[in-house]
Each structure stands twice: as C-alpha cells, then as structure tokens.
Amino acid sequence: MISKYFIQKLLVVCCLAATIGLLSACASDSPMSTFGAQGPGAAQLEDLFILIFWAALVVFVIVGGGLVFTVVRFRQKPGDTSLPPQIHGHRNLEIAWTIAPILVLIVIAIPSIDGIFALANSPDEDSLTVTVTGHQWWWEFDYEDEDIVTANELHIPANTVVNLNIESSDVIHSFWVPKLQGKIDAVPGHSNFLWLEADEPGTYLGQCLEFCGEAHANMRFVVIADSLEGFEDWKANQRAPANTPSGRAISGSQLFLSKGCIACHKIDSTGGTIGPNLTHFASRGTFAGSILENTRGNLIKWVTDPESMKAGNQMSAQAPVYTNPDMAMTPEEVSHIVAYLQSLK
Ligand SMILES: [Cu+2]
Q1: I need a surface site. Which of 71, 77, 151, 319 has the fewest CB within 10 A?
Q2: What is the pLDDT of residues 174-201, one digit of tens each?
Q3: What are residue 136's phi and psi, to 5 degrees?
Q4: Per-residue b or e along 223-256, where b marks 16 or more CB atoms closer than 10 Å to that residue's CB
C-alpha cells in the first residue's frame, strides 16, 4: 500500500521540479526570453514588469504574513473554550486598507500608462517604414519607399527606430521579437502599428505568437540589425535586378517558368505573390519561415518534397508539380532549379 508519507514526499519532489522548470525559463541569455532586453522598447516593458513584480511581492508578503501571523497567534489553545473577543468594524484600519491599495495602484498605473503611449507612438515617425504581412506560414517584409520586398529576414539598421505596419493576408497572426519589443497582432483587413529598435548589430529571433493553423510553430523569422554601412550595402543589393543566370541555372530559370513556380513567386517585377519574393533569395540565410538553413541540400529536399520539410505549407498544398503527377520533376530538373535559386544572390 502507498503510505501517506510517500505521497507527501512525492508532492514535495514534484513541486521542487516544477519550480526549477519555471525558474530555468527566466535565463536571460536564451534568445526567446523577454529578460535581457536588447532594444529600448523591450527594455521599457522589462522595467515595468520588474516594478510590478516587486510591488506584488511586497503586497503578497504583507497580506500572506498577516494571515499566517493571525492564524498562529490567535489559534485555539488546548482547554480554551471561551469565544474570542467579538469586534465590529475599525474605522482607522478600514481607511488604511482602502488608501494603501490606491497608493499601490497609482505606483503601478503611472509607468503602465506611460508604457502604453510609448508603445503606440513612434519615437521617430519619419524613420524607415516597413510593411510586415503575415501569411500562412511565413512573413513578408515590404520596404515601400525603397522598392524592396523580401521574406522571413527583416534587415534593419542598428540604433535606429524602424516603424512597422503589421498586416495579414489570411488569418490573425502575431508578430513578436521578444528581445526588441512587445508583440502585436497581424489582423486581416487592418493595419496595426509597432516600432522596433535594436541597441546593437546582431540577429534577433522572432516567432508568430497567435495560433494560425498547421504550421504555426514553424512560422518564425529573424530580425538582422546591420551597422549603418552594412544596411546601405544590403539595400543596394536588394534593389538591384536579379542576377542573369549562367550555366545550369539557365535551364533552371526556364524550369522555373515551365513548372509554374513563377505563378506564386516573384522574380524582379514578374510573378505571383502567393509565395515569398525570390529575386534575391540566395542572399537570405534561412527559408520557409526561417526554419531551414539556406543550403543546397535543404533546397534540393525543399523543391523535391516541401511537405516533408514543413508539413502543411501552401506550396505543396497548391503547386501543380506536387498535386499533379504529370508535372513531377526529375532529380536533374530539381538540381537545375536549385542552381538557379542559388544564383539569385
Ligand atoms: Cu501563427
């Protein structure tokens, strides 16, 4: 038979394990943690969280401590059968515990309201503006003033405010880069505003945070903060027309048309918009919602059978080469298309 003490011990062990698990989530060096902010937007939110945490802790200690004290101090002692003193109301105490929470709430409300306005208003409205569109299950970044459209990797200049119009082409998504800023929903038919700034050049991970269907967990992205010169170089390369293919990439570029890839993917100003713009695809380090490294091996697997690399993706669900056996590609055709994709620097 399982003894009462065994169950008690088991409970203690479980509680300890849960606490360790919970606390390990606070490690500030993990890339998806909101602690260890690396931009002013996230830093303001982190400060607010810490302030409210300490305020809540003080309230908890006072209320919990008072409760434990009274339970222990005024407990019924053996042999004591008399009723405790019966008290009705205490004006000063009642005034005190009405005013104290008001003061606590004021301390919390002032920086909270300040934070709401700071998040909603850009510190620099004339700075770089990018329209971000969530698609099932990848992100599009449109630098309208620069004539650049790219996917999954958002390049920004470090130490600069970047204004983002957050939109969606299908269902509700949520745009979140925990180290740089709070999250905001991407709602179809409506534009939401968010601004970002990174203190230092670097790579910051992002993730869709609103369940949006089968591949939601694989709808990631990265923000790459470049130095000012690095960002200018990146822009110059993105604005240039796609490279003219040579060698095997020539036949790859023809297959790109005959196999229907162009129906969904734009190269320069030609092509559809259902899939990511591929004009400078080879300049990106990752693809397919930033879950795959942009290597020849991964590209061969992706073009051969995208479903095996990212279940549910709209390319394998809709493209005729995957739904119609008569359109299937030979391994040689795939390698030519991949050579073409890799030439799009
Ligand atoms: Cu999602």
Answers
A1: 77
A2: 999 999 999 999 999 999 999 999 999 9
A3: -70, 105
A4: bbbbeeeebeebbeebeeebeebeebbebbbebb
135 C-alpha to center of ligand 1: Å?
9
Amino acid 197: pLDDT: 97
Q: Supply the pLDDT for residue 1.
A: 65
Q: How far is the centre of ligand 1, averaged over its atoms, from the C-alpha of 292 (Å)?
A: 17
Q: What is the pLDDT of residue 23?
A: 78
Q: How far is the CA of 174 from the centre of ligand 1 (A)?
A: 6
Pairing mode, strands 129-135 and 162-168? parallel
Query: pTM, whole model, 2 decimals?
Result: 0.89
* Tens-digit pLDDT profile for residues 271-300: 999 999 999 999 999 999 999 999 999 999
**Rg over CA atoms, the chain:** 28
For β-strands 138-143 and 129-135, DSSP reports them as antiparallel
* Sequence-ordered list of residues with C-beta below 8 angstroms from that of 183, at least 6 positions apart, any chain: 174, 175, 176, 209
CA of 211 to the centre of ligand 1 (A): 4
Closest CA to 169 of 273, 319, 317: 273
